[in-house]
């Protein structure tokens, strides 16, 4: 019982964390806590096989799948604070409370009698007993679940399949398009110029300088330009350099 | 040959309907076809009448059954016609005067681009009027009755671009509906009482019925007659009906259709003979209308409206005569015929004057026209002499007989009729003076001229008839001719000799003429109508048609309008309010129920979860209990 | 024994409430997994109570089905995300008129 009393509060807190966590990743971590704790409880209740399966299948496979999809959809996708349906949270809380209190109270009335324990059933080892049931009494259900798994795998493939709607561009197509653009608009067919060339810095936020000393905007990443993080260090003015050096010495970090 | 009398109706009907459906190419000769159809009908009528003259007294009622119109259980109506002494006279009057007016209209409507349609309506009117007088069943008569009402409506509103004409047509139609209601109720009463609506059968069976039935029938038919003949209290439409073209006023609203009420009373003589009360009602209506029409005729400055007041008054004479019973029926018809001649003549004369005066109807803009329109003046003058009752013109003979018969009935009725004769002389003289004598008052742009021959010849024809119409009375021919229908009347001897009464009437007429000359030749006539405030209360009342319209408004129109408004309100707020209220409440409920349907899966899941919670609670409750 | 079942029910209820209040489809899915795990705990506990392994077999089946369900469910989420650029369950509210 020690394990139970240690783990039960953790599980409840983690479950509540699942409900209240703002970020989906935190929720997933909370769920993992609950699952691992459950596995321990299984082991404590004479179900070592399920303990292993719980760890491997749930925490190992299913939770990884969840996290994988979370990464795919966007880790930082979090719920908006504002509830869209009026009164939904309050109503859910009240009904949940009523339901929880009712069933918890009901359990005390209904579950009684002595605990038989699994000593006898696990006589030949827990996996042995389970396999006897699975391949004997429940063999048909077992076969059906295997069919279900195959169907689910196929279904997932179908659902995740993305139809290609446009023709695929080969490398030859791409180079032909580049040459055509060069002919029509004079766009350079080669790679973009690297930042920092001939400039005082060679950082990515410093534009390359043309031979005449003017900066080349296209050598900077568009997103840096959009964020306004382009360093204007291309002005080759010695006073400016001295000023910046002074700033650096005063520990301002040299940022602009 | 009398089996073919339906042709009298069929010829103008076919012509009228044909002209209506004919395309534009019919415009060139449509008026000729219409006139020829009317003339053919007249000629056939003459032939039939002549052969009727050649028969013995008993054979002079020739009936024919065309087909069975209605055969529903015990209700049986034949489409049958009867050509007898009374309807024969009417056929001649309708088709004869009608044909002359058709001819006149060729000239009068020459510049109207819808002349073909006008002639089609005129022909349809002739057909409907002939149906009315030839019918041998009250229901067939009612068919013609409604037909002339329709033609009247169409022709009053012929110039439908004028709001006043459209309104007048509507008014005539609506007021006539009131009379038609009486007529329809009368026919229903006939059917319930006698099981038939045949004119002959009803008038034969009436003697066996109770007096109250005869009185009710008589009053209902009188109501119908009042509507059609513009008698008080249903007189208000006739003056407005003058909005129609003048030939229409002459044919329908002077000579023929408005006399249909008189025809109905005479035709239903069996019913009126059986009820003293109904006869008295007819006399009262006739006398009141006689005086009211004359009053209105004295005050109107619009030549057509003055003549319309005169028409009301003269029909009042006829009604009065018809109410006198067998003693007066023949004179009612006699006056009807002579009136048909001279009033049609004068209306057409008025139309001729208007034709020369740029369609101006205001008599105060006339004056001294006798030299500019000699033929119109001469023919109008003959009509004038006829209507006021100057011997030996037609009106003298007919009016004289009516007044005499009225004195035979009751001295007060006789005095009223005598007064009417004097007033008639007054207002007709006034009309003559203002139009043809006195100084000229027309404006510069008006160039009075005589009308074309196609218009003057019918005037001459009608003037001649007005002059010699009295010939029908020679040796009491008309009384004897109609006697098989109207019944024999014992000639009542008056307290004074007939010749003295005639002299008295003539003197009264002369006094009326002298009064008019005295009032209207003394000083120049104002070219504009004096304001209401500057004339006597009598003239003011006359100008406003004795406040008949105001009375109708107060008694019928306004209460009806209030009732309608209430009903509209009740319909909108009460009935619709309930219906839309139910719908609105349902809509509100739906809107309320719609709110939980957010479309969010989570909210549905919440509902499910709540349901589960309730289920668990219920299970627990059951288990614990 | 009651305490195991009670814990299981508490976890189940928390999972339920989580399903109702969270809008990120993946977190909702996690809450469903939590509910499944809570039932598994109950199965295992009842198995011990009754002294046979049928409960554990049931828990085993639940795991298998949960695995299949997660695979299909997550691929549905991915395809919805691909179409709508959002993993919120409220975005897919086409039922609302």
Task: Describe the protein in words.
The complex is a heterotrimer of chains A (256), B (625) and C (97). Chain A is mainly α and 256 residues long. Among the domains of chain A are: 1-73, Four Helix Bundle (Hemerythrin (Met), subunit A), CATH 1.20.120; 171-250, no CATH class. Chain A has helices at residues 2-20, 24-44, 48-73, 88-110, 126-137, 139-160, 171-185, 222-227, 238-249; strands spanning 208-209, 215-216. Chain A has a two-stranded antiparallel ribbon. The two termini of chain A are 63 Å apart. The model of chain A has no long low-confidence stretch (mean pLDDT 82). By secondary structure, chain B is mostly helical. The longest helix of chain B has 47 residues, at 548-594. In chain B, helix 3 (85-108) runs antiparallel to helix 10, helix 14 (303-323) packs across helix 17 (394-409) and helix 17 packs antiparallel against helix 18 (411-436). Chain C has three helices and no strands. Chain C has helices at residues 2-21, 25-50, 54-84. In chain C, helix 1 runs antiparallel to helix 2 (25-50) and helix 2 runs antiparallel to helix 3 (54-84). The mean pLDDT of chain C is 87. Chains in contact: A-B, A-C, B-C. Chains A and C meet through helix 1, helix 2, helix 3, helix 4 and helix 5 of A and helix 1, helix 2 and helix 3 of C.
TL;DR?
The complex is a heterotrimer of chains A (256), B (625) and C (97). With 256 residues, chain A is an all-alpha fold.
Secondary-structure topology with pairs:
The complex is a heterotrimer of chains A (256), B (625) and C (97).
Chain A: H1 2-20, H2 24-44, H3 48-73, H4 88-110, H5 126-137, H6 139-160, H7 171-185, E1 208-209, E2 215-216, H8 222-227, H9 238-249
Antiparallel strand pairs in A: 1-2
Chain B: H1 6-21, H2 30-53, E1 62-72, E2 75-83, H3 85-108, H4 115-134, H5 138-156, H6 163-194, H7 199-205, H8 211-229, H9 236-240, H10 246-255, H11 260-267, H12 269-273, H13 276-299, H14 303-323, H15 326-356, H16 374-388, H17 394-409, H18 411-436, H19 453-468, H20 477-486, H21 498-520, H22 537-543, H23 548-594, H24 601-624
Antiparallel strand pairs in B: 1-2
Helix pairs in contact in B: 1-2, 1-4, 2-3, 2-4, 3-4, 3-10, 3-15, 3-19, 4-5, 5-6, 5-10, 6-8, 8-11, 8-13, 10-15, 11-14, 13-14, 13-18, 13-22, 14-15, 14-17, 14-18, 15-16, 15-17, 15-19, 15-20, 16-18, 16-19, 17-18, 18-21
Chain C: H1 2-21, H2 25-50, H3 54-84
Helix pairs in contact in C: 1-2, 2-3
């Amino acid at each position: 019982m020690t394990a139970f009393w240690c783990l039960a509060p953790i599980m409840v807190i983690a479950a509540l964390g699942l409900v209240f966590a703002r970020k989906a990743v935190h929720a997933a971590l909370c769920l993992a806590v609950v699952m691992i704790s459950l596995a321990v409880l299984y082991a404590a209740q004479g179900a070592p096989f399920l303990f292993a399966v719980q760890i491997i299948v749930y925490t190992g496979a299913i939770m990884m799948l969840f996290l994988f999809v979370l990464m795919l959809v966007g880790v930082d996708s979090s719920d908006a604070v504002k509830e869209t349906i009026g009164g939904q949270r309050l109503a859910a809380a009240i009904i949940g409370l009523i339901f929880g209190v009712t069933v918890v109270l009901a359990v005390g009335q209904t579950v009684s009698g002595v605990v038989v324990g699994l000593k006898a059933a696990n006589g030949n080892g827990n996996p042995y007993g389970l396999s006897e049931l699975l391949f004997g009494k429940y063999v048909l259900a077992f076969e059906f679940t295997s069919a279900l798994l195959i169907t689910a795998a196929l279904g997932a493939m179908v659902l995740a399949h993305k139809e290609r709607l446009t023709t695929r561009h080969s490398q030859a197509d791409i180079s032909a398009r580049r040459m055509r653009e060069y002919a029509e608009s004079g766009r350079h067919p080669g790679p973009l110029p690297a930042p920092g060339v001939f400039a005082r810095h060679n950082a990515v936020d410093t534009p390359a300088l043309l031979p005449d000393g003017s900066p080349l905007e296209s050598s900077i990443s568009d997103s840096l330009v959009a964020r306004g993080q382009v360093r204007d260090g291309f002005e080759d003015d010695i006073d400016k350099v001295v000023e910046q050096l002074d700033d650096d010495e005063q520990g301002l970090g040299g940022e602009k | 040959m009398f089996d073919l009398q339906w042709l009298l109706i069929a010829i103008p009907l076919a012509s009228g309907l044909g002209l209506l459906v004919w395309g534009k190419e019919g415009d060139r000769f449509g008026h000729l076809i219409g006139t020829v159809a009317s003339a053919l009908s007249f000629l056939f009528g003459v032939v039939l009448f002549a052969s009727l003259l050649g028969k013995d007294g008993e054979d002079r009622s020739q009936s024919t059954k065309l087909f069975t119109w209605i055969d529903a259980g015990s209700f049986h109506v034949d489409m049958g016609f009867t050509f007898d002494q009374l309807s024969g006279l009417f056929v001649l009057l309708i088709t004869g005067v009608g044909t002359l007016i058709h001819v006149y209209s060729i000239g009068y409507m020459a510049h109207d681009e819808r002349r073909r349609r006008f002639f089609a309506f005129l022909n349809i009117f002739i057909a409907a009027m002939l149906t009315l007088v030839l019918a041998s069943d009250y229901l067939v008569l009612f068919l013609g009755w409604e037909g002339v009402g329709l033609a009247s409506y169409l022709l009053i509103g012929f110039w439908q671009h004028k709001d006043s004409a459209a309104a007048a047509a509507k008014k005539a139609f609506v007021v006539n509906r009131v009379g038609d209601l009486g007529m329809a109720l009368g026919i229903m009463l006939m059917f319930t009482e006698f099981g038939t609506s045949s004119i002959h059968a009803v008038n034969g069976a009436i003697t066996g019925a109770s007096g109250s039935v005869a009185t009710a029938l008589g009053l209902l038919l009188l109501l119908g007659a009042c509507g059609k003949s513009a008698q008080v209290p249903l007189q208000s439409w006739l003056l407005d009906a003058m909005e129609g073209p003048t030939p229409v006023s002459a044919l329908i609203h002077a000579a023929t259709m408005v006399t249909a009420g008189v025809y109905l009373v005479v035709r239903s003589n069996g019913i009126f003979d059986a009820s003293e009360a109904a006869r008295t009602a007819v006399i009262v209506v006739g006398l009141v209308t006689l005086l009211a029409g004359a009053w209105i005729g004295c005050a109107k400055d619009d030549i057509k409206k003055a003549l319309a007041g005169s028409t009301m008054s003269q029909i009042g004479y006829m009604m009065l005569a018809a109410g006198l019973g067998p003693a007066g029926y023949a004179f009612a018809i006699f006056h009807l015929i002579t009136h048909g001649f001279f009033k049609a003549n004068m209306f057409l004369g008025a139309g001729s004057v208007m034709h020369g005066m740029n369609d101006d109807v205001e008599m105060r803009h006339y004056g001294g026209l006798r030299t500019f329109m000699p033929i119109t003046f001469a023919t109008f003058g003959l009509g004038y002499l006829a209507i006021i009752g100057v011997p030996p013109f037609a009106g003298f003979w007919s009016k004289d007989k009516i007044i005499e018969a009225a004195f035979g009935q009751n001295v007060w009725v006789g005095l009223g009729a005598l007064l009417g004769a004097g007033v008639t002389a007054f207002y007709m003289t006034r009309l003559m003076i203002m139009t043809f004598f006195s100084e000229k008052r027309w404006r510069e742009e008006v160039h009075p001229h005589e009308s074309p021959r196609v218009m003057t010849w019918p005037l001459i024809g009608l003037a001649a008839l007005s002059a010699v119409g009295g010939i029908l009375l020679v040796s009491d021919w008309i009384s004897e001719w109609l006697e098989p229908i109207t019944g024999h009347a014992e000639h009542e001897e008056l307290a004074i000799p007939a010749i003295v009464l005639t002299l008295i009437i003539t003197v009264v007429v002369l006094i009326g003429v002298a009064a008019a000359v005295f009032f209207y030749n003394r000083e120049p006539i104002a070219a504009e109508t004096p304001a209401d405030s500057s004339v006597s209360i009598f003239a003011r009342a006359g100008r406003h048609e004795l406040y008949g319209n105001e009375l109708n408004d107060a008694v019928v129109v306004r209460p009806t309008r209030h009732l309608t408004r209430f009903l509209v309100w009740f319909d909108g707020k009460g009935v619709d309010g309930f219906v839309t209220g139910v719908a609105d409440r349902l809509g509100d409920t739906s809107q309320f129920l719609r709110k939980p349907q957010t479309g969010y899966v989570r909210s549905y899941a919440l509902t499910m979860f709540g349901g589960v919670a309730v289920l668990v609670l219920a299970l627990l409750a059951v288990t614990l209990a | 024994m009651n305490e195991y079942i009670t814990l299981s029910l508490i976890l189940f209820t928390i999972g339920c409430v989580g399903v109702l209040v969270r809008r990120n489809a993946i977190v909702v899915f996690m809450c469903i997994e939590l509910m499944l795990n809570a039932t598994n705990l109950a199965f295992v506990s009842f198995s011990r109570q009754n002294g046979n392994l049928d409960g554990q077999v049931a828990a085993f089946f639940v795991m298998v089905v949960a695995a299949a369900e997660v695979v299909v469910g997550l691929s549905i989420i991915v395809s919805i995300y691909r179409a709508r650029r959002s993993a919120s369950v409220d975005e897919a509210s086409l039922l609302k008129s």
